[in-house]
Design goal:
The chain is mainly beta and 217 residues long. The protein has one helix and 14 strands. The chain is elongated. The relative contact order is 0.09. It binds zinc ion.
């Protein structure tokens, strides 16, 4: 797990960004500042981006609030990382692997996470626009309260993942494993569950979705 160092600024409860020790090629386990209070925020941000760019396996990184643009995350492995309140714009991340990582309240635009493998991770409250999760394993993932637009989860394994209270607009869940996936209280427009095992998923009690249903509400 990432070390949850609080920001050194008095009265600030945000978590501190990781600082990188490039000499020893490690993430320092020392107190620091959040993105709003870091005196050298540009340098800290650039260092975190450089660290991600130059490592294939990343453990315990706290990048809360950072903007990532036009980067290649493909095949990278992330363990116990925090990317909460981040922006991901035009990120290529096919076959990326995330374990116990947190993306809550982040914004994803034009991102490709095709065939990624994401487990025990959280995207709660995040926004997705033109994001491709096609063919991914998204097991035990938290998508509660997300807003997703023109995005695809086709051919994904969503076992035990939760989309409670989410807003889904033009989102496709075709040919997915939905066993124990939870879609209670979702607002859906042009959402397809075609060929997915909707009977093994959890929907609000008043909904009646069959496996061959386009699932549009
Ligand atoms: Zn702070």
């Amino acid at each position: 797990m990432f070390t949850v160092n609080k920001c050194l600024c008095p009265d600030c409860n945000d978590s501190a960004l990781s600082t990188i020790d490039f000499e020893n090629d490690t993430i320092k386990d020392s107190p620091g500042y959040c993105i709003n209070h870091a005196p050298n925020v540009q340098e800290v941000t650039e260092n975190i981006i450089k660290y991600v760019e130059t490592h294939e396996k990343i453990i315990g990184l706290n990048a809360t609030g950072i903007n990532f643009e036009n980067m290649d995350f493909s095949n990278k492995k992330f363990y116990g990382c925090s990317f909460q309140h981040c922006t991901f714009l035009n990120i290529q991340a096919p076959e990326a692997r995330f374990r116990v990582s947190f993306f809550d309240f982040s914004v994803f635009s034009d991102c490709n996470l095709q065939s990624s493998n994401i487990q025990f991770s959280s995207f709660a409250g995040s926004t997705f626009s033109h994001v491709i999760f096609t063919g991914s394993d998204l097991v035990h993932a938290n998508f509660c309260g997300i807003s997703a637009y023109q995005s695809s989860f086709d051919d994904a394994d969503l076992y035990n993942s939760r989309f409670i209270d989410s807003t889904l607009n033009c989102v496709s869940f075709r040919n997915c494993n939905l066993k124990n996936a939870n879609f209670m209280n979702t607002s859906r427009k042009d959402v397809s569950f075609k060929l997915s095992n909707t009977r093994s998923a959890v929907f609000s009690p008043e909904e009646n979705i069959s496996e061959n249903d386009e699932g549009e509400v």
